[in-house]
Each structure stands twice: as structure tokens, then as C-alpha cells.
Amino acid sequence: MVSNDQMITMLTIPHDGRCCHVNNRRQALRSVQRVIMAVVGILGILIVDGGRGAQAEWYVAGYGGFSTGGDLSDVTMPIRGDRLARQQFPQADDPPNVTDSGRGILYQHFTTSDLSLKSSALYGGKVGYFFTDMKLPWLGVEAEVFTTTPNIKAQTVDTSHQITYQPNDPAPASRCADITPPPNCPASVVNKSRLALNESDLRVLTFALNLIARYPGSVVQPYVGVGVGAFYFLSSGQIDGRQFVPGLNAQFGLKYLATPHWALFAEGKYNLAHVSTLDQTFGISGLYSIFHVAGGVAYHF
Question: What CATH number does residue 205 fall under?
Fold first, then answer.
């Protein structure tokens, strides 16, 4: 639950229902953006230099596993919030130039507790290479694609809705103190409630470009990686929408070289991305955070 103090940051809500992100989300996104920029720069240098006549240790791999069930945190629903705010203060849309017109501006911020996601199967593939002939056998790059279906659970979430109504031509304070005040009196309210959500299908398709560091052992090779991801969210049901967003893809694992060419590996993956107005019913926005466990087979050549 977001506290009242955290809900103070607001922007004017235009008729399309969008609102600003809270500060902690901005900080998280800035951190992800710095990582993405750094990884893209390093990958660009390595790929350019690696293409200047140097041979590499290539590999392809396929894997399967499961997503442990993450969540959407720092959730806002700007479209639902805008709709409810205009229902509570319909005078904000009054025609201009009429007596005691309440036409004005609504500031609103609708937040909910985290949305839980289901555990699900995961499968994918990757291709990559290590810079062995550049005297960097511990460093490599890889491209991968994988998909999972962490459906949004049926759940009841706590909601908090802060609304501030500011008429263009406010009535005098003396009139606003009347038992029956005119419609053009400024007001500020905080509505707390609960919202029941049905289960909605969600598929996430991830395309990632990773920078890999490993211990180049002859039999066992532990490794870590970090990369940029393009996440395609496709949801259906009560929450119905789709969008591509950038994000973070991180991993760590252990590879066992059964032969000079064939290897088995197990790894953990972590994904972080920001979803913005996923659907047109609620306008769900938040941080997608999830951990995956996978195992597979790789062929080196």
C-alpha cells in the first residue's frame, strides 16, 4: 500500500487519463536505463572489434524451465482513476460561460497494492560467442529469446485514490461554507477501497542481448550475464492489452562440458521492466519483476 505522503506527487490529468510516475519508479527506471546504455556501448565495441578478423568460440543452446511467479509493483491505474474522478466531480466538465460553472481541472492519482503473477513454464533459445582468439576467453556476447505465461492472478487489491478538484472560477469561501455549497467550490479527497480482479492471461516474449563473463574452465564454467531486453506483453481477459517495452535481463549459471562440443547448463534469470498503460480499462502501469529458473543443452563449435 502506498502511503498518503507518497501520493503527493501528481500532474494534471488530461482527458486521456494519463498521470505521472512516482519518484521511486523514476529512480528505478533511471538505474535500468544506465545499465542498458552501458551494456549497449560495451556490446557495440566488442562486436565491432570482434569482427576485425578475430575468430570466436560460437555456441547455440536451447532451454526450458519455469517462472517463479513475480509481480507488478508500484501499480497505478490512471484510466480508472480519471474515470472515477470525473464521476465524483462531473462539474469539472461543465460547459463554460454558465452561472456557477464548475468547469475546472482534476488532479488525481490512483494506486493499488502489488498485482501477483502466476508461476508458469518457460522455454527459449540463444546463440553467442566468446572472444577466445582476442585473449578474452572469459568474455562473450549472446542473443536470446524466451517466452513465459505469468498470468495475472484472480485477486483483490487495496486501492487509494487521491483527487483534487480546482475550478477555473472558484466560488467565494463564504459560499463554499454553506450547507449546500455551489458546484464550483475547490475540494480534495482521498478514497480508499478494494478492487476485485478476475484472472487475466498474460504472455511475455523477451528478446535480449547479453554481455557474458565466465570462468573458462575445461569442464565446469560458472558464468554471469547482464543485458538489454525488449519485452512484449500480451494480455487478454479483464485486463486486455499489448505493448513492447525495454528492460533489464540478468542471469547467472553453471555450465558442464560433457564433451569438447556438448554442454549442459542450469541458470537463473531476473527480468525488470516498466509497463505503462497496458490496457484501456484500468490503464495498468507498474514495474514487472520476475525470476526464472532454466536448464538446457548447448553446442559449442
Answer: 2.40.160.20
